[in-house]
């Protein structure tokens, strides 16, 4: 993907009108001066770029276009709700779509997660969960119980507090955070475990590390442990088989709330509305969600909260304590109406389809492990990460890793596929509507993109097969 050359007008300002938009995650050297590839239209699993190329939307937007692009039912719902009631303030009114959605979510969430606070997306969902944790312990008379535990390799948001929880490499190189509130455990990624550890021993190490942290900090200081069931933006990292269950048990033993961050794994990505119990066998105290709840057709997220937490708040000695938190667009009637219709679409065959086709998706992508540049293909359901192993013949490994991801993306687009490059990895999470033949097309394009990238690196003397 080639960015247009910069051009300056007489005042030295950028002349291209597209440069008025500051893009997400820009580099300092090009901030406010990036014109990224325009996507001009989309339909089902495809997007079309400015040159007219039709590309499979490998990342489903940003893990979110679960029912596919240009779904008529969701488009009609958007319009109908906007023409019926566009907005109502959540501060002193309610609306029927929000109340119906809350009931539907409570019926589908595991255990006693019978309440939801609706937000505008994933970051605001995690932010809400953390603020509720802090409020909960203040009301309980435990103001010192505030430490938050996350993991290396994790991603939980882009607000100041949620970004502080993130553990992806280099997320904090130039960005500040509230490090005094957060402790990070080892990334539970078996692919990069020490060579001398079996998978079982690695799982024991991870659990023992958490136990040791609890003993060191004191359970009376630790408020919550937050975990993505699959670390999505870290590269689709799959933890050892019983890791989450054992971490949940440690939380229960030590009065530490367990927050499952299902912003990616919920609403069909793994074939279920919520994956915590159905896929991983854990009962969280809270579940955060967003993305697939509306299939990206409207910004919406939320936090499922247990009966137990709210009951403890209601019977405390501080009935007048005020949870001073809310968002202008919380419980937005249009977003809630879209979410209701989206859930109906998911349950009208799409969840079944995702569960049926997920193994084929994983099987086909794992054939790429035969390529010399590919170290591992991992994933579950309709999410996968392809990690390349570019042991650089250069002192700047990061530069080569970044080049690898971008090169694969470039070559894949030449072959009709849009991927999400993450340093030396490619993330795939297509719409749930994808067919077997389209999975074959995706795999073929990805194979050609990786092979072309390997040829580039060999030709330029940057890499050679082992």
TrEMBL record:
Family listed: Belongs to the class-III pyridoxal-phosphate-dependent aminotransferase family.
PROSITE patterns on file: AA_TRANSFER_CLASS_3 (PS00600)
GO molecular function: transaminase activity
Record keyword Nucleus present: no
InterPro entries: Aminotrans_3, Aminotrans_3_PPA_site, PyrdxlP-dep_Trfase, PyrdxlP-dep_Trfase_major, PyrdxlP-dep_Trfase_small
Native source species: Mesorhizobium huakuii
Record's protein name: Aminotransferase
Statement: the UniProt record of this protein carries the keyword Iron: no
CDD domains recorded: OAT_like
Transmembrane annotation, as ranges: none
């Amino acid at each position: 993907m080639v960015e247009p050359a910069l051009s300056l007008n007489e005042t030295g300002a950028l002349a291209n009108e597209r440069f008025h938009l500051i893009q997400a995650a820009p580099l300092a050297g090009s901030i406010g001066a990036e014109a990224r590839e325009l996507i001009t239209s989309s339909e089902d699993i495809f997007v079309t770029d400015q040159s007219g190329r039709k590309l499979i939307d490998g990342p489903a937007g940003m893990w979110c276009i679960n029912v596919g692009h240009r779904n008529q039912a969701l488009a009609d719902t958007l319009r109908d709700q906007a023409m019926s009631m566009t907005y109502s303030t959540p501060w002193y009114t309610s609306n029927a779509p929000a109340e119906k959605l809350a009931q539907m979510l409570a019926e589908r969430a595991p255990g006693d997660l019978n309440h939801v606070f609706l937000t505008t997306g994933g970051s605001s969902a995690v932010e809400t969960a953390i603020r509720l944790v802090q409020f909960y312990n203040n009301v309980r008379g435990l103001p010192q119980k505030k430490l938050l535990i996350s993991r290396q390799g994790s991603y939980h948001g882009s607000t100041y507090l949620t970004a502080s929880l993130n553990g992806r490499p280099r997320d904090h190189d130039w960005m500040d955070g509230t490090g005094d509130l957060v402790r990070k455990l080892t990334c539970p990624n078996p692919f990069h475990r020490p060579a001398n550890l079996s998978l079982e021993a690695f799982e024991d190490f991870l659990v023992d590390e958490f136990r040791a942290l609890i003993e060191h900090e004191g359970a009376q200081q630790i408020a919550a442990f937050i975990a993505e069931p699959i670390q999505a933006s870290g590269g689709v990292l799959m933890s050892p088989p019983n890791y989450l269950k054992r971490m949940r048990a440690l939380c229960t033993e030590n009065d530490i709330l367990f927050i499952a961050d299902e912003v990616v794994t919920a609403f069909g990505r793994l074939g279920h509305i919520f994956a915590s119990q159905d896929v991983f066998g854990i009962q969280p105290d809270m579940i955060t969600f967003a993305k697939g709840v509306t299939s990206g057709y409207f910004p919406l997220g939320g936090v499922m909260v247990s009966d137990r937490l709210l009951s403890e708040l209601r019977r405390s000695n501080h009935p007048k304590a005020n949870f001073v938190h809310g968002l202008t667009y919380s419980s937005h009637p249009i977003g809630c109406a879209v979410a209701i219709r989206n859930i109906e679409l998911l349950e009208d065959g799409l969840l079944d389809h995702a569960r049926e086709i997920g193994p084929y998706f994983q099987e086909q992508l794992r054939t790429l492990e035969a390529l010399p540049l590919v170290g591992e293909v991992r994933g579950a359901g309709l999410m996968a990460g392809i990690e390349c192993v570019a042991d650089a013949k250069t002192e700047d490994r990061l530069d080569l890793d970044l080049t690898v991801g971008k090169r694969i993306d470039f070559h894949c687009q030449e072959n009709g596929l849009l991927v999400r490059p993450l340093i030396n990895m490619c993330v795939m999470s297509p719409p749930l509507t994808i067919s077997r033949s389209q999975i074959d097309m995706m795999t073929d394009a990805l194979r050609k993109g990786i092979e072309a990238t390997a040829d580039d690196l060999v030709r330029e003397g940057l890499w050679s097969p082992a």
